[in-house]
Amino acid sequence: MVLECISTSPFMEPRIGLLPFNQKTYFRWGAKSSSGGAVEKHNHSSLFIDKRGKIRSFNHKKLSRKKGGSLRGRGWKYGSGFVDGVFPVLSPIAEKILNFVQKEVNPNIIWTALDTLPTTHTTWDDIVNVAVQLRLNKLWDPIILICEWVLYRSSFHPDVMCYNLLIDAYGHKSQHKKAESTYLELLEARCVPTEDTYALLLRAYCNSRLLEKAEAIFAEMRKNGLPPSTVVYDAYIDGLIKGGNTQKAVDIFQRMKRDCCQPSTNTYTMLINLYGKANKSYMALKVFNEMKSQKCKPNICTYTALVNAFAREGLCEKAEEVFEQMQEAGHEPDVYAYNALMEAYSRAGYPHGAAEIFSLMQHMGCEPDRASYNIMVDAYGRAGLHDDAEAVFEELKRLGMTPTMKSHMLLLSAYSKTGNVQKCEEFVTQMHESGLQLDTFVLNSMLNLYGRVGHFRKMEEVLIAMEKGPYEADISTYNILINIYGRAGFLDKMEEVFSSVSSKKLKPDVVTWTSRLGAYSKKKQYVRCLEIFEEMIDAGCYPDGGTAKVLLSACSSEDETDQVTTVIRSMHRDTRTVLPT
Fold first, then answer.
1. Alpha carbons within 13 A on the beta-carbon side of 400
2. pTM beyond 0.85
3. Which residues of 548-572 are buried (b: 16+ CB within 10 A; e: fewer)?
4. 40 phi and psi, to 5 degrees?
5. DSSP bridge pairs for 28
6. Which of 282, 358, 398, 563 has the fewest CB atoms lying closer than 10 Å?
7. Which residues lie closer than 8 Å to 533 by C-beta, 6 or more apart?
8. Pairing state of beta strands 4-6 and 55-57?
9. Is residue 168's pLDDT more than 50?
10. What is the number of H-type helices and E-type strands within the chain?
11. Torsion of CA 156, 157, 161, 166, to 10 degrees
């Protein structure tokens, strides 16, 4: 069956003498979209009138293969969002297409509009530029619609970049089967996959936690004569880190080096970030030193990651040393670097040191962002200076920056630290009246506040509201209760809460066990502490520095102290403590 229609492009102004000779559009059935439905495949007319008035013809299938054009026939760099290292420059028509696909939600309307575009080199460049710009904006659905239109409906012959964009979009949507199907279509179209193709497919598997399939990518690359490269290893490590599989990421990093694949600046930066977030700044520094020994040059992101690693542990002197090294290496600190250094002083309990960095940033012409103000609110709040924290919060609003939920949380924590119940209650009411959706963190803060000041009835009312209402209690909720009841000496109530944790489908963490230990340690019940410690180990939860301190405080004699010291040391020898599992 043949259907006939006449269409006009919503993106273009009419131009006399340059329109196609035959305006009819023919459809044929056959191709399938990723959703499984039948898709019309157009057979555009090959005839048109040139500017001299002569009838001419062209071959659509060769249009996208011809050299030239802004992005046509070029590679695409994984992970950067760039094509050949530059941002796409959009033509007026491309701008219209971009605005249209961002506003329109009906796929049929979008495809019908794209059908009206002329089949030219310029159109292909516009389509690719729009897709790349959408990727920069992290708008995956419009990318899928555009690339599927190219593959299943247009007369353009897609190149590897189009397939890569589609695989990437599917990966971010956790649609690994569609990403895999696109890769197979790429091979069927006799299009040669690049290392970026494999990197993106591997990332899609990581997003879906399919590590066996991710591992199979390396075998697939070797089968096709392409050894795993830095790009592919970086994609794998990045996917594992974002999926929370940090130990596996470290293993892959070591395997990368064993395979004689040279880690890049990006590789080392990811590992430094990984160790920093695990509060292992000494390991982050070790990776940084290894990087320099391998003649791999750190960039500003690397230095900032190392500053952040020290900042999380409040090691402000170390953080400042790295900050100075960054400047000596010729890098101009940006807002992220300044924020990291401010965080170091905040965590170390030096709010005025953080304020000096804030002033220095402004003096150097670097404009503070919302995160900068949040750090200052936190810095003053940690030091108990809630008036200063409130002043920074108000300054944030005065400058026209809308406070985020985190901004409110930090100010609430500042009020809570001083034990000002009335002020906290008023602030939570203001948050609710302003339209902010209260979350578990807010209620946990109020739970902790009520417990600390001895308002147990109110604390239990908040817990009942959390268990019955839309606010889901998490392990931190029960850790607060265990800590409060334990400190108050209500051991039976504490044990009742601890026993209820498993029924809530939650797993006690090191804070849960340490808080429970602390209650008995306070009463010098050494034997009971050892029993709980053994339960903790049997449950697969390993002690940290806080656990060791609590155990030692339970000791009443030198023999008990020696026994605990021996146990803790043996635990650290037998346990992998570099990263959380």
1. 0
2. no
3. bebbeebbeeeebeeebeebbeebe
4. -75, 135
5. 41
6. 398
7. 517, 543, 547, 551, 567
8. unpaired
9. yes
10. 28, 5
11. 70
